Amino acid sequence: MFTKSQHAAWHHVLGLCKLGEGETAVVLGAQGVDTRYRDTALQVARERGATAAYIEVENANRLPATALAALRTADFVVDLSHSHDPEIRKLAPYGTRTLVVLEPPEILERMLPQASDKDRVLHAQACIRQSGRMRVTTAAGTDFEVALGELGGNCQYGFSDEPGHWDQWPGAFVTTYGNEGSANGTVVIAEGDIVFPQKEYVRNAITLRIEGGYIRAIEGGVDAMLLKATLNSYADPEVFAVSHLGWGLSRNSRWDALGFYDKKEIEGQDGRGHYGNFLFSTGPNLSGGGTRRAPLHLDIPLRDATVWLDDRQMVKAGEVLAAEQRA
Ligand SMILES: [Fe+2]
């Protein structure tokens, strides 16, 4: 049963997505995946004048041809399955707008996107595109540099309003990929920083020594040992590569949110898109236009980082500096 304010929040976000009269919407679910938003998504899509259908697949990461055909002909998709089938990120030629919705209702409402979030994120993205270098430092000891320009990046602002755009409600952040082999320096994952997909706060600092685009050493206590064990378990050197890099611009995100939920109840957009974070990650660079595949992708948001693009500070000790990017 959904409350009046949750119903209003869905209308607000599908409104930002410009879902309207005469459009076709598909709500995508999968077996064994929480589809608590199915009825609300269908109802609100219909109230906005769209025709809406629910499709449930067996495995969201291997979408069958029938489901893909439906997604390609739809104007708008609400993805409750969080499909990682590469085809769902290739709907741009079909014009399909895709919005993933996973987080608990109170997080959807607390981090409710606003139209201006898109402007703030696009400003950050434009700054990245004009820059040749990114440097990140933290008081905990991070000092890391990467060259930019060879690959693209992604941005999320919490709604999907343009043909072919993929997004997630909630979450606003910008990412880019470093030039192949250019990442060098030290990343310190400090106490209280987060490692995804484990959804764990680090209890003792982990130091990553990075050279030529890859993590070459992992130093620290028990958390370092566990991270090393996880990465080694894949027996694939590409899991040690540096992946997307960027900073968070989300409205009303809470760093401590993970502690209030069972892991399967929360996706972690609070941490990943946390306002003023630095989001470090490992593994593939396919979605930046690169060729690196990797069987594991870690998202590691750091708090209180300072981020430079060339000689311009974008974030200073966790504070977003550019007026155009401030919430
Ligand atoms: Fe990621």
Notes on the structure:
This protein is of the alpha+beta class. It has two domains: 4-102, Rossmann fold (3-Layer(aba) Sandwich), CATH 3.40.50; 115-325, no CATH class. Helices cover 21% and strands 29% of the residues. It contains seven helices and 20 strands. An eight-stranded antiparallel beta sheet has the order 14-13-10-6-5-18-19-20, covered by helices on one side. Strands 2-1-3-4-8 form a five-stranded parallel beta sheet, sandwiched between helices. It has a five-stranded antiparallel beta sheet with strand order 7-9-15-16-17, with helices on one face. A hairpin with a 4-residue loop joins strand 11 and strand 12. Helix 1 (4-16) packs across helix 2 (38-47). The longest helix has 15 residues, at 115-129. The radius of gyration is 19 Å and the shape is globular. The mean pLDDT is 97.
Summary keywords:
about 325 residues; alpha+beta; Rossmann fold; five-stranded parallel beta sheet; about 30% strand; binds fe (ii) ion
Number of strands: 20
Strand residues, percent: 25-35%
Summarize the amount of helix as a percent range: 10-25%
Distinct small-molecule ligands in the complex: fe (ii) ion
Q: Specify Rg, calculated over alpha carbons.
A: 19 Å
Largest sheet: 8 strands, antiparallel
Count, helices: 7
User: How many domains make up the 3D coordinates?
Assistant: 2
The overall pLDDT average reads 97
The H/E string reads: HEHEHEEHHEEEEEEEEEEHEHEEEEE
The spatial strand order of the largest sheet comes to 14-13-10-6-5-18-19-20
Q: What best-fitting shape do the alpha-carbon axes yield? A: globular
